[in-house]
Amino acid sequence: MFFAYPENYFIQIFMQAQRNNDVPQLRKLLDKDVRILTPGKLGEIEISKGEYLSFLQQVGKLDQDCYPQYEIVKLTPNTAEVNIDFAYPDFVAKHSLTMVKKGDDWKIIQLRKLIETEPAPVTVMQQ
Fold first, then answer.
1. Which residues contact 8 (CB under 8 A, 6 or more apart)?
2. pLDDT by residue (tens digit) across 7-37?
């Protein structure tokens, strides 16, 4: 598949790698000093690239039942901010990427993840 701009191609590769837990590909896309923010029990936490990839490695490669869509929020010749929604049947995993161009390649320097769930239906007990 051909994309008119290199950043679009990079985003497509990231979405595919994330959807499939492709650790070797994600290792290439994430900068060595990437900042990863993810939901934790007590709010947002920061984890290292190694922790993130180790977690995905434990889960293993899989084809997640989700449909990604992205929007480039800001683009300059050397930076990009991108929002990606991975829509699952019961929730949306939102990813916010900050990317920089290093030589001919793009690298993700920040990845922020957020999970949005649909409110559960209210069940009223009948007496």
1. 72
2. 889 999 999 999 999 999 999 999 999 999 9
